[in-house]
Design goal:
This protein has 9 helices and 13 strands. With about 425 residues, the chain is an alpha+beta fold. Among the domains are: about 140 residues, no CATH class; about 130 residues, 2-Layer Sandwich (Heat Shock Protein 90). The strands form 4 sheets. A 5-stranded mixed β-sheet has the order 8-10-11-13-12, with helices on one face. InterPro entries: HAMP_dom, HATPase_C_sf, HATPase_dom, His_kinase_dom, HisK_dim/P_dom, HisK_dim/P_sf, TCS_sensor_his_kinase.
């Protein structure tokens, strides 16, 4: 647990409140009991002083608990008696706590009587120890109960936060399903259940809207296939020339866009499954460059066997290479370093929005250049084959895209050479 989590903040708050209450009650009880004990001792000392005064006035011997100017008499009480006033004060006698009472006597002396305060001091010490022990037990109990109660609350909050993170990562089927929500009546039994119900409702609504958009995208792409096929046939009937070539190029662009839309809809629906097998990464890189039809340099620093879907990996690399040639500046280089592949161009680099939040569909930057669906498809296909795609800009200029493939646990044996 983090020391700054809500659970420990709640526990510390409860402990602080308990300490404050226990301290105030302890001080109050200590003051009251101490006052009563001192008052009782003062009364006893004054009673003894009155008896000693009568004996002193009558010329009789003083009681054993009284004397004139005793050395142990507290200084402030002695000064008070010398000024002609009567008073009491706590002090010691024979190293024991004692309550003294004194009045002025003849010859500038002080007549003093004492009362043993040992029992009263012991009572106060025992009371202070009992208060301290009770406060410690109360604090420990409060902290334990508070930790248990707050752990149940924070556990629900952590679960709700985990579900929110899963939804933001694309798992739209994630739900909190807090049992404290009265689903039948639509009411929530507490505030956390209200937040959980609101999150579930938001996820359901978002999931419905996304599914509607995915169905719309797939339907549009399917519906475009028929007129595009007709356009392609009609373009074949046109006379040769530059206008016919331009029409054919536009039809091919529309056809590619339609296929990209279909691929996007399939990736969004999360129904695609990767067909994993072992392949040499260098062979896949060279095939992707040849399929792109671009003058891309391939640098093999280190080959490796990878377990991946060859078709999808070639699609990712092809989209990255075509994007580098379309929006960057040559030379474009594909570097293979084991399971790590990098595509580098020498153009203006990726825009800030792409570095911060990733590719956006059909987004057009201020320079008038969009990134279409190529990078979006590359990101989706990379996620499907459990690869990590990272977009950055090289220190000396140009876009730098890094694709990291998972390392297989078992490395296949190379096929035997022919004739062996």
């Amino acid at each position: 647990m983090r020391p700054r989590s809500l659970r420990w903040r709640s526990v510390l708050f409860l402990a602080a409140v308990c300490c404050l209450v226990a301290g105030l009650l302890g001080v109050l009880v200590h003051v009251i009991v101490t006052g009563q004990t001192v008052k009782q001792a003062r009364t006893q000392a004054l009673t003894r002083l009155e008896a000693a005064t009568r004996a002193y006035t009558n010329g009789a011997p003083l009681p054993a608990h009284a004397s004139l100017d005793p050395p142990a008499l507290p200084t402030q009480l002695r000064a008070l008696a010398h000024r002609g006033e009567r008073g009491t004060a706590l002090g010691t006698f024979a190293q024991a706590p004692t309550m003294w009472a004194a009045i002025p006597a003849r010859g500038g002396k002080a007549l003093a009587a004492r009362y043993d305060y040992t029992a009263g001091a012991a009572t106060i010490r025992g009371l202070d120890q009992a208060i301290g022990l009770s406060a410690a037990l109360a604090i420990a109990t409060t902290v334990g109960v508070g930790a248990f109660a707050s752990s149940r609350v924070t556990r629900r909050l952590h679960h709700t936060a985990d579900v929110a993170r899963r939804i933001s990562a694309g798992d739209l089927d994630a739900r909190v399903a807090d049992p404290r929500t009265d689903n039948g009546a639509g009411r929530c039994l507490d505030e956390i259940a209200a937040v959980s119900a609101a999150l579930d409702a938001m996820a359901t609504t978002l999931q419905g809207k996304l599914h509607s958009e995915q169905r719309f995208t797939a339907d549009v792409a399917h519906e475009l296939r028929t007129p595009l096929a007709g356009l392609h046939v009609a373009a074949g009937l046109l006379p040769p020339g530059r206008p016919t070539e331009m029409v054919t190029e536009r039809i091919q662009s529309l056809n590619q866009l339609t296929e990209d839309l279909l691929e996007i809809s399939r990736l969004d629906s999360q129904t695609e499954q990767a067909e994993l097998d072992f392949h040499q990464i260098a062979d896949i890189a060279e095939r992707a460059v040849r399929a792109s039809g671009t003058p891309t340099e391939v640098r093999i620093l280190r080959g490796a066997w990878v377990e991946t879907d060859r078709r999808r990996l070639e699609r990712v690399l092809g989209n990255l290479i075509i994007n580098a040639h379309r929006h960057g500046t040559p030379p474009v280089t594909l570097t293979v370093d084991g399971p790590v592949l990098t595509v580098r161009d020498h153009g203006a680099g990726y825009p800030d929005y792409l570095l911060e939040s990733g590719p956006r569909r059909f987004h057009t930057s201020r320079r008038g250049k969009g990134h279409g669906l190529g990078l979006t498809i590359a990101t989706g296909q990379a996620r499907l084959i459990n690869a990590e795609l990272h977009f950055a800009n090289a220190p000396d200029g140009g876009a730098l895209t890094t694709l990291t493939l998972p390392t297989p646990t078992d490395t296949p044996q190379p096929p035997p050479e022919p004739g062996t």
